[in-house]
């Protein structure tokens, strides 16, 4: 009979997240040696994680950290919303976020290859997923710097952690308006900050579509250039933050709202789980 107690079982369950029978078996195999039992569970967990590698991770959360003019945003995924809302998953996501901040990582690949406690962050995440019983993954990281950073985390479902996250970099003192603009970004999903950031080939494609559409509609030849420009400008208004109509005042561009508040936006990040 292995030399371990109910308290030992409880301690290892809390430490590893493994089930009671798995913990008992591990302690039996290790003859009561908790360190060896943890190693046994890790190996077992990693084997289980390998089987989960082909599964998709479509749920999860976004999390942010802002400090000293630097904002870090991550999307951390799980297979199910059941796990996404668990305290252990949220804790694991926050640990990964802390590692991203500590390493100054601006992309997922950089962080996954970094080391923590003698192993890669990728392995650290895999082991965390093994304890949770399903595949988890760091999908992406964003990093932004500015004089000020405003963050907004939005819950699409009150029972789940935030699934939309926004970081807005700006200069100025009106935090209330900066917050309203961050909320606007969460709701209106701008893809670009300024029209100069829109890829030239995408603008040209929109121009071609507008031209062909105008011709198919039988518009007068002399009116077509103005119609095309109008439709391209509408594309910018739909997709460029500074040109979008402000959510609270749709007839006023975001750029004018910022200007009236004495603010200058310098960039933004927006993540939505799965998008």
Automatic annotation (TrEMBL):
Residues 80-83 are annotated as: Involved in Mg(2+) ion dislocation from EF-Tu. One of its GO terms (molecular function) is translation elongation factor activity. Transmembrane segments: none annotated. It holds the Pfam family EF_TS. Its main location: cytoplasm. It comes from the Bacteria. Residues 71-274 form the Translation elongation factor EFTs/EF1B dimerisation domain. Gene3D superfamilies: 1.10.286.20, DNA helicase RuvA subunit, C-terminal domain, Elongation factor Ts, dimerisation domain. It is found in: Cytoplasm. Keywords: Cytoplasm, Elongation factor, Protein biosynthesis. The keyword Cytoplasm applies. Belongs to the EF-Ts family. Associates with the EF-Tu.GDP complex and induces the exchange of GDP to GTP. It remains bound to the aminoacyl-tRNA.EF-Tu.GTP complex up to the GTP hydrolysis stage on the ribosome. This is Elongation factor Ts. It comes from Brevibacterium samyangense.
């Amino acid at each position: 009979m292995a030399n371990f107690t109910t308290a030992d079982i409880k301690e290892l369950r809390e430490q590893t997240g493994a089930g009671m029978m798995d913990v008992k078996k591990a302690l039996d195999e290790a003859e009561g040696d908790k360190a060896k039992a943890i190693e046994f569970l890790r190996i077992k967990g990693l084997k289980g994680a390998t089987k989960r590698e082909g599964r998709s991770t479509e749920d999860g959360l976004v999390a942010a950290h802002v400090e000293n003019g630097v904002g870090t945003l991550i999307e951390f995924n799980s297979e199910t919303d059941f796990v996404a809302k668990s305290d252990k998953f949220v804790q694991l996501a926050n640990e990964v976020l802390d590692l991203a901040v500590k390493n100054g990582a601006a992309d997922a690949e950089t962080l996954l290859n970094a080391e923590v406690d003698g192993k890669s962050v990728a392995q650290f995440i895999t082991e965390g997923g093994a304890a949770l019983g399903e595949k988890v993954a760091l999908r992406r990281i964003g990093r932004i710097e500015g004089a000020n950073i405003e963050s907004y985390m939005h819950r699409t479902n009150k029972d789940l952690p935030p699934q939309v996250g926004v970081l807005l970099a700006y200069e100025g003192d009106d935090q209330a308006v900066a917050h309203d603009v961050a909320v606007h970004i969460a709701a209106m999903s701008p893809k670009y900050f300024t029209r100069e950031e829109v890829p030239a080939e995408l603008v040209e494609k929109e121009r071609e579509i507008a031209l062909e559409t105008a011709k198919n509609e039988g518009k007068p030849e002399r009116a077509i250039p103005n119609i095309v420009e109008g439709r391209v400008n509408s594309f910018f208004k739909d997709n460029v933050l500074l040109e979008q109509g402000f959510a609270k005042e749709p007839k006023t561009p975001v750029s004018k709202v910022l200007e009236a508040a004495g603010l200058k936006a310098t960039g933004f990040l927006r993540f939505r789980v799965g998008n």
